[in-house]
Design a protein that fits this description.
621 residues; mainly alpha
């Protein structure tokens, strides 16, 4: 006999009822098991899932599925008058016989229980998760055979596996609503960065996945680094700390020949990222010739070009080098002049390098590559110190992982003892109470040990970042002062791509033969303005607007899009020249300052008056 649905019932009340029943079932309470199996006339192997318990709660009130009861409650709450009658499950046509298997019942209920989730569809009709703006794992299972069939050596398919670091502590300390807020923000950031490039999925819990067609592993690793940096900068309304993620990268056919191996390699790479200290990206290609569960940072840190195994694979180094080139070309108008000053001043220090890279920190497109150069503090260290601390941090993180697992098991056993105490007979009550007290004491001790280990890990991680900052700045300063290479974005990218895992000379040696992408517009505009300015010996009291206009129009149209962009935005260029002259810049820094101000003016949002003025002053020719 079913219960009458209370008039005050709402979805939150019913959800709490389902969670209470699920908790009691997992605690082994006989009354809960009797209640559950009387409502679900089949034998469930193992522990019931929340979906099974929700269905049982729905049947308790006479509904055959949770979505039908949800629809009924929502219609009453809106006052729409739409009252959906319960579908009988005992006196009417039964949904399943008592002897039915779980699979048969779920298959028959698929059109009842699943449509509530399938109401959320992506733009391409894919199934969306019921809480996050990502596709469901079922959609992943449907998509991967198709995408894998279209991939080849020249059109690879990469897979990213992402997992939030220490996410359980968010739920434990701040509650599941805050955890849901954090997970939603991370998923939204992932979608904003990757949705136009591939397909984003919720794999399960706090694990997310991205399929990237036509992405080699090095390119996918660079994109993953952008996602990692974007997540680390998130701010939350109800959670006062930063959140980090660990990302594993795998690629078909580069690292993984089959779909199963692709998933396994990406998962192993993500595990390795956590073993190495979390908050990082790890490429499965580094595991290709090694055991996937062995710590990956035990090789020598300093690159030896002629001896031993290379510390960074070529494709990963290529991705890092091209990402560096893009960042430096975009930031060159702000940092190029200062870098040239460092080169020309033998007394320059690593503090000058830090100040030079401060504008990169404010760059909205900065993926975090240059963090070591503008990091607040630096600790004197050598490559050997960094290698030792990386190994120590990896071992410490493994110990934290083991202690966390032990803490979770003790927490479960402590709840089990408390549940057993409520149903114990008077003769057994004292024994069970003593056992519950002992388990609780062990739980508190392990909890204290876990906090201590995490504190040690945070201190060591900060020290490692400080040491990496020192090595990176020292290597770049050495590159600038050696005067062997011209100071250009591409030469700098070759030098810093491998830092701090290798010396700048080894990085240049390996990167110099790798192809570059097309230069960014910022640097092409800078080159054009530098060509116009040239080696001017004439002194100008007033802004040389006419000089720039005349030389710009005389430039060949073969100069490409940069020339056309300057002509179309002549009003912004004129204002930039006038602003530069007001600030009394040196002759050598004029192309840098003019380009910086011009790009800022040309790319900002304009009001109608500014758009009309810009259109009227556009140069033709």
């Amino acid at each position: 006999m079913t219960r009458e649905l209370p008039a005050h019932a709402n979805l939150e009340h019913l959800r709490k009822q389902a969670k209470r029943l699920l908790r009691d079932l997992r605690a082994g309470k006989p009354a809960a098991a009797t209640e559950f199996h009387s409502l679900v006339p089949i034998a469930f192997p193992g522990r019931p899932k929340l979906a099974d318990v929700q269905r049982a709660v729905a049947r308790e009130y006479g509904f055959d599925s949770w979505p039908r009861m949800k629809k009924h409650v929502e219609s009453v709450a809106r006052g729409s008058g739409v009252m959906e009658a319960p579908v009988p499950t005992s006196n009417g046509k039964a949904l399943a016989e008592p002897s039915s298997t779980v699979e048969e019942v779920r298959r028959k209920e698929e059109d009842l229980f699943i449509p509530d989730h399938l109401e959320r569809k992506g733009a391409d009709g894919g199934e969306l998760d019921d809480r996050l703006p990502l596709y469901r794992k079922r959609q992943f299972d449907s998509d991967i055979p198709t995408l894998l069939g279209k991939s080849s050596e020249h059109a690879p398919l990469s897979l990213l596996f992402l997992d939030l670091d220490h996410f359980k502590q968010v739920n434990d300390r701040y509650g599941h609503p805050v955890g849901d807020e954090v997970l939603l923000e991370v998923a939204s950031t992932l979608k904003a960065i990757c949705a136009a490039k591939g397909h984003c999925y919720r794999w399960g819990g706090e694990e997310l996945a991205v399929l990237l067609p036509n992405y080699a592993s090095g390119e996918a690793a660079s994109l993953a680094e952008r996602v990692r940096h974007g997540v680390s900068k998130l701010e939350f309304q109800n959670y006062p700390h930063n959140v980090t993620i660990s990302v594993g990268v795998a690629c078909h056919p580069e690292t993984s020949p089959t779909a199963e191996r692709l998933v396994k390699d990406a998962d192993n790479a993500m595990y390795q990222a956590k073993q190495n200290g979390r908050n990082q990206v790890f490429n499965a290609i580094s595991l290709k010739h090694a055991d996937s569960r062995r710590p990956a940072r035990t090789r020598t840190l300093t690159e030896k070009p002629t001896l031993g195994r290379r510390t960074i694979p070529d494709n990963f180094l290529l991705g890092a080098r091209n990402a560096w080139a893009a960042l430096l070309e975009e930031s060159w108008p702000e940092i190029g002049s200062s870098l040239l000053c460092i080169r020309d001043r033998p007394s320059s220090t690593i503090e000058d390098v830090k100040k030079t890279f401060e504008p990169v920190k404010r760059n909205p497109h900065n993926p975090g590559l240059a963090a070591g150069f503008y990091h607040e503090s630096a600790e004197t260290a050598t490559a050997a110190d960094i290698r030792m601390n990386r190994e120590k941090l990896g071992k410490l993180q493994a110990q934290i992982h083991h202690t966390q697992a032990k803490h979770d098991e003790l927490e479960r056993s402590s709840r089990e003892a408390e549940a057993a105490l409520t149903g114990a007979s008077p003769g057994d009550e004292q024994t069970i109470r003593e056992e519950a007290t002992r388990r609780l004491k062990c739980l508190h001790q392990v909890g204290d040990d876990l906090i201590k280990l995490q504190s040690e890990g945070d201190v060591l991680d900060k020290q490692l970042r400080d040491q990496e900052a020192f090595v990176s700045r020292s290597e770049l300063l050495d590159f600038l002062l050696c005067e062997k290479y011209a100071v250009t974005p591409r030469n700098l990218a070759n030098a810093v791509a491998g830092l701090p895992s290798m010396k700048w000379r080894q990085s240049v040696s390996r990167c110099s033969t790798m192809p570059f992408n097309e230069p960014y517009l910022h640097y092409r505009v800078f080159e054009t303005i530098s060509k116009i300015w040239g080696d001017q010996s004439q002194e100008f009291e007033d802004p040389p607007v006419r000089l720039f206009r005349t030389k710009l129009l005389k430039l060949s149209k073969k100069a490409g899009y940069a020339r056309q962009f300057l002509c179309d935005n002549w009003n912004d260029l004129r204002l930039a020249i006038e602003e530069c002259w007001k600030s009394k810049q040196s002759r050598e820094s004029i192309p840098f300052v003019v380009t910086s101000v011009f790009m800022r003016n040309a790319t900002k949002q304009k009001n109608p008056v500014e758009r009309i003025l810009a259109e009227r002053e556009k140069l033709e020719g």
